[in-house]
Fold each of these.
Amino acid sequence: MGLEEERARIRRVLGERAFAAGFLVAGVLVFAWPFVRAPRLPLVPAFFHLVVAWALMVIGLAAMSRALSRAGREPGGDEDERRG
Amino acid sequence: MGDLGAAAAIVGAYVAVLFAIAGWAERPRGRRLASTPLVYALSLGVYATTWTYYGSVGFAARNGLLFLTVYLGPTLCAIGWWWVLRKLIRIKAEYRVTGLPDLLALRYERSHRVSLLATALLVVGLVPYLALQLKTLSATLGLVAGGGGALAYPRVGDRVGPPLVAFLVLFTVLFGLRRVRPTERHPGLMVALAAESVVKLVAFVAAGLYVTYGRFDGLADVFRRAAAAPAPPIPDLLGGHGVVTWLLHLLVSGVAVVLLPRQFHVAVVEASDEGHVRTAMWLFPAYLLAMNVFVLPIALGGLLLGLPVGQADTYVLSLPLEGGRSALSWLVFLGGFSAGTGMIIVETTALATMISNDVVVPAADRLPALAGLGRHLRQVRWASAAAILCAAFAYERAFGANYSLASIGFVSFVAVLQLAPAALGVIFWQGASRAGAVAGMSVGFAVWAYTLVVPVLARSGWLPDSILTAGPFGIEPLQPEGLFGVHLDAVSHAVLWTLVLNGGAFAVGSLLFPPSRAELARTDRIAGVRTGPPVAEGSDGSPVIASTAEKRAAAARLLARYHGEEDGARLADECLARAGAPRDGGLSAVQLAQLQSEVETALAAAIGSAAAHAALRRNPLVLPRESRAISAAYAEILASLNVSPAELERKREYHRERERILLHEAEAQRLLAEVSGQLGASLALEDVARAAVRLPVPQLAEAAVLWLAPDGRRPGRVWLAHAAPLREKAAREAADLAAARLGEVSSVARALATGRPVSHRDGPDPGWPEPLRAAVGRAHEMTLPLLAGRSALGTLTLFGAAARNGADDVALVEEVARRLAIALENALLYERAEEAVRARDEFLAVASHELKTPLTPLRIRIQTIERLVARGELGSVPREKLLQLFGGAEAQVLRIVGLVDDLLDVTRITTRKLKLRPEPMDLVQSVRAVVERHAHELAEARCAVRIDAPPEVRGTWDRLRVEQVLTNLVLNAAKYVPGARVDVRVRANAAHAEIAVHDDGPGIAPADQQRIFLPFERATSYLAVSGFGLGLFIVRQIVEAHGGSVTLDSAPGRGTTFTIALPRAAERSESVPGPSQA
């Protein structure tokens, strides 16, 4: 692996981790919001808020998975077969 | 509804379908399906048990939205799966991990104590969870079969429990425990789990649609009625709990989704391709979302229809039953049946493997009476599975009626949480040790039992109830549900205390008893999943120390003890092949060591790493003599490398450090390449400066200020960049206003004076404008001079973090500043070159005009004379008229000669060919001669000239050149300020003579005062006044060639004074030097 490729890989991995950390923090904040705001949301609006946030989170995870899939160069296949 | 016979028929048919699916999946085509990411993600749906299927509705009816934490926690956790789960799958593939206790044992010194403790914790913690599933299956089967009398829970459990347990044991044995090596995958089980996930989702959504649209007019109707209903029975938002409870429940669920034995088994042990994690990380949360959309509507629907809250756990089934929807009821029941059986089968498979590897095999190795059990691992696991399910059934019979589904589920989740610190240590903390893991798990186990199990026993009558209210022995601070006065809900209370004490004990234990150096190296390999390169088959040239046949037989014997004769022989051959051992002949020391490692891994695949390590210790494959030879061989390898073990370690550290430095250097080079690229993108000074000031932000600094010093042609200029746009605006405005004074900031002045970086660690220099200092706060300041050759063009100031990595970063910013200075110098030169080209083009236009202007009147006069000659009228023209004609022609010729002389002088000056011929002369006489010589032009310009001079000022100068200087100055006054009064004053002392030529014209603007001494420059436009704009340039060159100087004193409205100072004894200059920079 060339130096440039290694630099690109490190940059990509750090970027991925930073995005994941930000995504996690944002998720916790959004999921906790109905219970920390004053006054607390009523039951039904809070339920809708959580379901919509959850759906958006799934979409975000799908996008993240797609990005990881494009960026990843690791060989796929059977891990156990590889080990023997 | 029919009786149990009909129920048995329907369940039997469904089970037969499940068996058929699992059986088909064991065939090649089914195996291919089992290895797809879709099946992997759906099989993770085993997380959704009867707790999800029935219990969530009950939980929602009592505690509002708190049920969602069980699914939102895993959704949040899925964000990190690509890094955590993938690493676990790699470790599993490399080290043949059979379960979570095995992974912990592998990491913590292959300690049997660690795996035993983890197994005990999981079995004790999860048997109630299994009991909960059995309870639900019995209760719902009774309900769907009629519900009354003997079919009511708990009595129905007596009838359906035993056959249910028998079926579950059978399925577990057939599809989960068929193989000795648990690491061999079970495609039938995985595909059956995926199918069950689909069935339970379809059934639950069908129930939700029925309640929402069959019993109400849609979701809006349910929610509208719920909003209008009184608080009881409609639940509170979180059942009266706060956000702390919400967050702690999220945490415990997020951990459980990976560490629950069934989840670890499906997600890690059964994983065929780490790439499947990418699909699972979004599909699994999507599955959970779909499963939960109708939970709250069903709960609210049941409550609005008047069903008692106490029966909310079965609303999903009782609502269709109450509505007489028989087919839907059976579908719903089968969905719940799928949820319960899937969980029980996988959980039992995982726990049975743990019991066999971490309890039975070690006991068989130590107790002669049990020695034979090691040869019957499969049967041991079958018996373990049966024992687990029987224990769960017994627990269900004893306690099942007293607790809701959710309360039991969370007790198990918190038990699993006790493995989290040690499990995180596997991946993230190399310094974690066996002592820490044992201490953490032990303390966590004890606190879990005290805070969650003791209250269950007390409420069931097994312990005095007073322990809950007054504490043990009347010590109130030790109340199991209110330790030291902390009162939260039972689960949050337990999570808080167990995490604090478990994590604390784990950290303290690991710090007090750290792993050995050898263990650190091994854990580093495990966490990094690094292995050596494959060993090539054949002799490696080293001496043979053991017979291949002998070692093959020993390995086969050992492996056969746990894998059986046939598999043992085959595995021994595979181990020899991977060790690179030749089929015949002997093994070298390195090959023998590798063989032992391979055999240990093969054993670990069946009995776990701790037991495998112990088995090899008791039945060593390597004899003491061979062990010494191996040590000698490795010592020889070290010697051939010319290093001691300690030195080898140091070298390793050196190479690690080198790698770190190289990466840092690579990053620096990347930044510098980016700097060069951006700086080279344009030659325009403004573009370069703007790009340059942005480059260090934010990689090297929080804010940057680029200041260009005044250069005589324009004042100081400043550019600024800040990581925060709002702060940048305020700071830039302040910097722009202070641009002219920034050179007085002491750090800038010092950097310019010394040519070295100036650093302020305690915040910016107080000389910076206040808004700029406010924008950068107390950030560290570093000001770097921008050096072009020896002169400084300006400074680059970085605020914040420029030196966070010490000398490396200082060197980096110095290099950035150096490249920036080069780019700025190039931009300045380019700007000057452009100006010169512009001036040249303008000059050519003017020169053409100037040279042509006298030619026209000259030509007219020549034509007139020619006409007179042709007509023979020349003699008749009066003499005065002829003289006027010839005089006018001569004047135009002289004008051209003057222009050409100026050009020749400039050429001589620039090529250093202008020679001075000094001679003794009287300066006053020359002044008077020049004024007299040009009296006509001065009179035409209406300029009155007054000479104020002593009688004589003698010196040695080039007379012609000095008179040329005087002529230029006097005629300049006449040319630019016609009608002005011109005073010429001559003064002298012993050393110098001084001539001042003053006019009372409008004066010269300060911006033009330097420029007018440059060639082809003038204060006014070319169109206003004729001439090349060379006069003052020639004046300065001639005067400086005499060793003198020219100064200009002028201001708008105050007239202009040119003062020439000449040394009375002129320097003997052979030629005039080239033009100096203005």
Amino acid sequence: MTRIVVIGNGMVGYKFCEKLMASTGGKDFQVTVFGEEPWPAYDRVHLSAYFSGSSAEDLIMAPREWYRKNRIDLRTNELIVKIDRDQKKVISHTGAEVFYDKLVLATGSGAFVPPVQGVEKKGVFVYRTLEDLDAIIDYGKKVKSAAVMGGGLLGLEAAKAVLDMGLKAHVIEFAPRLMPRQLDESGSSILKSKLEELGISIHLSKNTKQIHGNGKLTGLEFADGTELRVEMLVISAGIKPRDELAKACGLKTAARGGILVNEFLQTNDENIFAIGEVASYENMIYGLVAPGYEMATQVVNQLVSHEIKPFMGFDMSTKLKLIGVDVASFGDPFGEVEPSKAIVFEDKVKGLYKRINISTDGKRLIGGILIGDASAYNMLWQMVQNKMPLPPEPEDLILGARGGKEVAGAGLESLPADAQICSCENITKGDICNVIEKDGLAQLSEIKTCTKAGTGCGGCLPMVNDLLQLQLKSMGKQVKNVICEHFEYSRQELLDLVKVKGIKTYDFLLDKLGTGDGCEVCKPVVASILASSWNELVIKQDTIQDTNDRYLANIQKGGTYSVVPRIPGGEITPDKLIVIGQVAKKYRLYTKVTGGQRIDLFGARVDQLPDIWEELIEAGFESGHAYGKSLRTVKSCVGSTWCRYGVQDAVSFAIRVEERYKGLRSPHKLKGAVSGCIRECAEAQSKDFGLIATEKGWNLYVCGNGGSKPQHAKLLINDVDSETCIKYIDRFLMFYIKTAEPLTRTATWLNKLEGGMDYLRDVVVNDCLGIGEELEREMGFMMETYACEWKEVVNNPELRAKFKHFLNVEEEDPSVQFQEIRGQKIPATWG
Amino acid sequence: MITELEKYKTADTSKVSTWFKAASVDAFPKNGGACVKYKDLQIAVFNFTRRNEWYACQNLCPHKMQMILSRGMIGSAGEDPKVACPFHKKTFSLKSGKNLNGDTCDIATYPIKIEDGYVFVGFEK
């Protein structure tokens, strides 16, 4: 048994434990870890997520349970105060002594606080730990503005946090530009104007001389005599290695801080290693997580006698999204290390800046900077790392090929096998190709699990996926969009087979055409196909449905469900409104008006759903299908009946359309809208299908959506009458349902459709495939067979009986707990 | 809620001291699950009709501490039977309890026996 003591439970300290367990399963080692913070290691890289709603638990690298399972003695809240190298033991502030055979110092760093007069005042914080963040959030509630000292990576992260707290944000940087280590003058100026657009004030070349305020901070005074009135200051001006323990026990440290290590991460005591931000290799401190992980891996390799690669320094290239702006800097961003020439592209209108530095012989890329669009980062970084030859027109690398040609020589194919793809986990192209070729992996998720590539910052995932597709292709495997391991078919193929063979159940389909026992991917896809083909009651096959379709309601935090009755076109009588109010009151439901002009009732226990619906149905409501991948709502403006501008009766037409397609199951949700005039108050151009009234009839728009990637709908046809309009929507929707991939909205479907909008118009309007009538007939069948799912359930005791939490007792789930907000209830906790 | 999680410990068939009579076989949905209450534990029981197998595990998904796994879809990854949490589709082996995405804790599993048309869940101690 080798006794290992790790001082420091940060990201690198944790990674050391993880790597050690992964390579030995913990056998032969007795590991004790000391962390001075109250919680296990958490993700410091994504600290600012804490301000936008992530909890401390979300940031934890691994729960305590993980340490227990691996028999690691994790002691949080315990500070080591002394290392006794003679007796090989460490002593904590509680007086506890632990002996070691090997000691790993992963003490990391603290915030560097410049010696400015007044830093002790109230309202001055550092940005480093969760406790710092709690204090910042607390104080932030009392003030309206905050300044961040430091315009580097961390400082800008902190500025985002300040912005997320709803405060006026200032950034103060000593240097004449932002991110001085990564960006040049022009890059910084583009980033600056982007950040200023977002409301952050940037103050460059400012040397803070004094912090004003009587006890608590009221403003800053700079060396140039200017002042800034601000109520809070967050210092994020750099890091200071935590080398005090090492110093005290006689380990050698660097003049600028940090414990001196050799290429094997050993200190001058061969039994003591230092890794992460506290280690100084050749007078260099590495304040990024990737080199820290690399050091952890190297020490583990030595301990388990794996092949050892000496640590030779680490590339400090980085790519990140700073407050929504892509920023990347790679290789030698300034072109100063060796003679070079730069190619620069700058677009101040769009906020783009791209610079690549080329060796003077024009053969190699040595570094560069990307701002505004860093999509080329992975490939460019690979070219630098692997000294790959440049294409004949190197400007293509940042401008893209012009004149319809592919960019030459920049493909993944030309990467050598030892090219590092994932820098967090140090996974090479060869590693990834190997598991695809030898272990037969064919899914991105499998590759992630098996190699751990992309599990750190995730930045390399697009490249890993491209590599997967490329490798599969080169192995002669057809790269086909199959649904999952259980069906070697695309959704469209399965749908055709289901229709041709008249297959009506999932089990039969799996027996006939699939392998294995199904999964959470193919089950709902097939359920959707069956519903789109036969329109039978979905909960007849309840266990192949996603939970929302299984319980005909939307699951919410805490495991309760929300209920949305259909309110076609958003039109509702006072009597019906009263019923919704009464039902909500009776069952104590949280009510909210949705974006689709309906009312959502939250917080219903699963056993309450049938009772709630019995009352709603009694009052004439039907299911709103908010739980299904199906038609949600057709939104409308008030139209010509009331509005002085209206040219068509938008409400009546919206109701007609919603009634027509209600209950229609599709590859993804469907939303529609009808606007009564050109003012477009119903926002029809952001819907899957949208109608805008004209003097002559309707303009029909299709394939728009809101959501994370908003896309405007495109005009399919203009000035058509109501009947023609409906005919075309019938055809359009059915064509989409029959041909789209699973969980693909109409916008994405159109983007991938060969021929695009012109082709879609050819199919729908000109009927170039001759399937127009068939599509209309199929849509007709869906309307004839429509039945309100909830009506069926409410009137069927057998189906009703499925709605309960416990099978064996008539009790409610005791874990469902609520708290109050503004006079209504919300779920109590979320793990 | 960590304490809630600690209530669930995998039971080994050879060490079972209590066989809890949960409900009749017919009460469970085919190829799906339901939740049964035993003392203060919530156990998800799965009737894997297709494989002619039964499985039981904690109802608590360790990812967001939600009592939900019994409502998850079941299936297979290779040969391994699995359940997917309805919230974020974290999947767990029904045999070993192992988290198959590799980013969440594993779950506790319990042995099942069927006698006289009834489903029994096994617990240690």
